[in-house]
Design goal:
CATH architecture: Beta Barrel
Helix content: under 10%
CATH class: Mainly Beta
Oligomer: single chain
Shape: elongated
Largest sheet: 8 strands, antiparallel, barrel
Distance between the termini: 26 Å
CATH topology: Lipocalin
Strand order of the largest sheet: 1-4-5-7-8-9-10-11
CATH superfamily: Lipid/polyisoprenoid-binding, YceI-like
Strand content: over 45%
Amino acid sequence: MVRPAVLAFGALLLGLPVQAQSSWNFDRTSTQISFIGHRFGAIVTNGRFERYDGTFSIDFDHPEKSRIKVTLDTASIKAGSALVDGFIAGASMLDSAKYPTATFVSDSVTRTGDHDLEIRGSLTIKGMTHPIRVRVMIDGDVDKARRGEALPFRASGSFLRPVYDIGRDVNIVDDQIDIEIKGRLAR
């Protein structure tokens, strides 16, 4: 249940002139990484990861040279109750005891609009790695970010549970899990 997260980071890659390869991190006071599971279109589960890390090496002049890595602590899931948290972190779902982290690593960053980016990369959950696409929207003032202020963003992506052997026998949630990140990047 990671994701795309991961995702939001590309928000800084608008191709605006700033020094090459500037380093950014999540602003932990305002960033949340969430997951959402649906069943027949209705939300049946959601939650967030409480422990995560991200490194963003951003080249504003050449976004394609930028690199993003996000790591989630799979045991840090909070979905509303200790019972549900334990189930999701348990062996049939994320198997946090055996696989304590899930990771996203970017392969490419492309500007798709004035305030929009697409990040393609690899998502690793339970030791299995598959491609994923993340959409990012910049919510803040890029000029202020150039001067060192934090940059608000939103990112989203989806993955399929079966390709990561998550909840093979769970039929109360659809196969697609959505990941959303809303927050800020700071230097």
